[in-house]
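note to self — DONT lose this again. spent like an hour looking for the file last time. sequence + predicted structure for the chain T wanted, 316 res
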Amino acid sequence: MKGLAICLSAVLIIGAGILTFRQETGLQGESLIAKVDGVPIEYREYQLILQDLRSTTPPEKLKELALKSLTAIKVEQAWAKEKGLIDDLSYSSELKRWKQENERRNQAVRQKKPIYGPIQYDERGFYEYELSNLRIRLKEAVSKQDYKISDDVLKTRYEAIKEQQFKKPDTIQLWKVAIPDQDGKGKERMKQASDKLAQGEDFKQIAQSYAIDGKGWELSIHADNQKQISETAPILFEEALKLPAGQQSPVFEENGTLFIVKCAARTQGGYEPFEQVKRQVSSFYVEEKYKEEVERRTQAARTEIVQTNLDKVKIT
């Protein structure tokens, strides 16, 4: 009972704080802050965005950036309405959908039906969830209606981005001189090995001679193990990536072991075939066009600010 009393007190205090804040500002949740091409920005939604930006934005820039962010969101929502994906763009209607969604999830829990995501959404979580879903549906709609392109154009785009997006990793055959340094004598032994290499002795033989039980002096880095090696031995991995065939690295240390590595052979990985990545190329194209269109619409949008209400918003 004591714990319950504390919880109730906390709720009352929080509730009183919210009430006091609204009384001080004179604004209610549905109070109009601005309109973007006629689409309302309500006080409660504006406050939600302010809270999201508060930790990363200087106070003097907070109101401006919140309005800018909401302008882009309202532009996207208006575009979605044009495509028939949403009817009511007011935040009040979103709050109703939030309540309905949580009621639906409550009912599913009572009936022991599976649900995806949280059992209940908080306001911010539902806002992000609904906006994310709306963007996915809008991109799907415009990809079918506005941004359909031929395979020839897709192939041209594939050629333009394949180096950055679709290059397969090379297969690198590595030889390594690896000398543990736990006993404090590793540096001396590595200097001996380095001197032998400098005098032209065979790298492979030296690598074998310093290997424990004659093992572990070879390593093949390829597509299947590249991620694992990059995580377990990131320095060695980076050194290997730098080396053309026939070249060796300087001495470096990782995980208490001194290394010199040599690229014995390197096979080009090539590129993912166009037919296998065509959908990804199309997705990149739609994403690019989508961002351009949102930017264009945002720049062209007419924002009407209710200055008296905006001035009442307190930044604390």
